[in-house]
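Structural prep section.
Before we set up the soaks we want a predicted structure of the protein with magnesium ion in place, mainly to decide which crystallisation condition to try first. Input record follows.
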Amino acid sequence: MGDRVLELANIGKTFAGVTVLRNVNLQLQKGEVHALIGENGAGKSTLIKILSGYFPPDRGGEIRMNGKPVVFYNPKDAMKASIHTIYQELTLCPLMSVAENIVLDKQHFFPGLLQKKRGFRELAMKALERLGQADIDPGSLVKDLSIAQQQVVEIAKAITSNAQIVLMDEPTSSISQSDADKLFNIIRGLKADQVTVVYISHRLHEIDGIADRITVLRDGDLVGTVNKAEVTERDLIRMMVGRELTTMYPKVNVPIAEPALRVENLSSEGAFRNISFDVRKGEIFGIGGLVGAKRTELLEALFGLRPITAGRILVNGKEFTPKSPRQAIRKRIAFVTEDRKKSGLILCLPVYENISLINAQEKVPFGWLDWRRLFRIAEKQRKALNIRLARMEQTVRTLSGGNQQKVALAKWLEFQPEVILFDEPTRGIDIGAKTEIYSIMGALAARGTAIVMVSSELPELLSVADRIMVLREGEMKGIVRREEATQEMIMSLAALKHTAAAGGLQERRQQ
Ligand SMILES: Nc1ncnc2c1ncn2[C@@H]1O[C@H](COP(=O)(O)OP(=O)(O)OP(=O)(O)O)[C@@H](O)[C@H]1O
Ligand SMILES: [Mg+2]
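Run finished without errors. Recording the tokens verbatim:
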């Protein structure tokens, strides 16, 4: 450490008159892991996109590499300058093999190599070995790999291009804990090879584990760059949020009434078997388990997105077999999906239309859409959820990741569901907004809504849910009350092999 590899001087970014980054001055040192943190919409991804040549900075800003000013006109320029980016949405070619993906774009490094299939297979193999991932076959198609393995391929791509700087935007947001641990080892390896890693995450414990220095952004301003050793988690939160956060999990105790949702011996072939539980009005019912436990599949079946092959569902005491989401919605069941890009939102539509979509179908008495009213509804929800945007007419695509998640939630709130199914509700959401979402759940519960929440974050399950059901490979392994539940208990129900310490957990990957 010590040498500056890259300097950002006075970097700003304005989109259509709205400034989202202001006067950012940042130095990256050789071989450091530099974390970039901040609330949703603070400008982290935008900063990374400037560094990777995806966007130009505003006039007046300068990027210097090894002391010399550089200008990137496109991502290829940045790559040639040995900056490699791993975006949250992975950019590999799914129908090409691992090896082909790794050597792609490297014709200029290895002239003639593309003709020699064996040559680049070897190159790929070497890179994977160096990452300790020799079990990935260079010949397999990228589409058949798990997300974590695709990330490894992205990193292999970076190291075969001799990247000096690797930028990672929320790399752990959709992989399991054990895959995240592997990734941290890879990052430590990169650091040992003097590669600089810029790491964005909302998970402060991850940053505590790997970062050397931390830069905090708030609303487009750089609040400060600190040495990890010199700050506490509390300091970081204060820097990000601009105030003290007193309670992380504002749990409201709601008197719990009669069951709103009852599930009896429910099965869906190929997914889960024989699951029974009930969720009462005002209750938050958590579902835990590892990746592959079939939790999302269970929610899909409840929402009419997956056929039910045995058992039954009762809503407010009446049997109900949802055959489509439309039927589920008619029963006032809402589903806030995990993958907001695939099924939660229409990215090319403006924010206000996304928020009022569900309501639009409901509130059209004479086939007349009252846009002003829909706009007002959207504005109310935007305020309630503190969604950060420039204009309501902005397309959802241009919102930051966390703010997209809030829009996905907002569209259901106005609808006043009786049962709301949440799949990983706070994934990619910053710490302040998380607390807001828990408060909203509490308010929904107080209104008598029955809430089902799938979550992989144990502290969240243990603090927010009233009861927790654990699934493992499509089977129910137990239901525990919050007062009795511990992390170890949930983990041991969720995993096949386990030791008492959560750290020694052996997770079986499902391919
Ligand atoms: N192409 C664009 N057009 C207009 N505004 C944009 C565009 N891209 C980003 N923004 C805005 O810039 C701001 C910063 O977004 P950015 O994605 O950098 O935030 P972030 O810190 O990565 O947040 P998150 O933690 O939610 O991912 C947001 O308000 C966003 O709406
Ligand atoms: Mg982002």
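Observations: The chain has 17 helices and 20 strands.
Flagged for discussion at group meeting.
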